[in-house]
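To: structure subgroup
Subject: Chain for Friday's discussion

All,

I'm putting the inputs and outputs inline so they're searchable in the archive.
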Amino acid sequence: MFFSLPATFLKGTAAATGFALACSLANIAGLVSNSLMGVAIDVTGSSAGALWFFAGCLIFSSFLVIALPAKLVNR
């Protein structure tokens, strides 16, 4: 879903720029998630707590996508 959103809202070169931004954010997330995993393990004391944190992030982001107005997405 994340990579299809820029083309939904943008056209032409703006869509290409939006896709590049999505790729950049994905690369940054891959870099930062390793550190966040260590912090979450330190805070919760187990790797299960860290995985629950990341699962919560995924569920939150899916609600954000679902909250997009249908008129805006289905043009």
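Points worth raising on Friday:
The chain has four helices and no strands.
The CA atoms of residues 7 and 15 lie 5 Å apart.

D.
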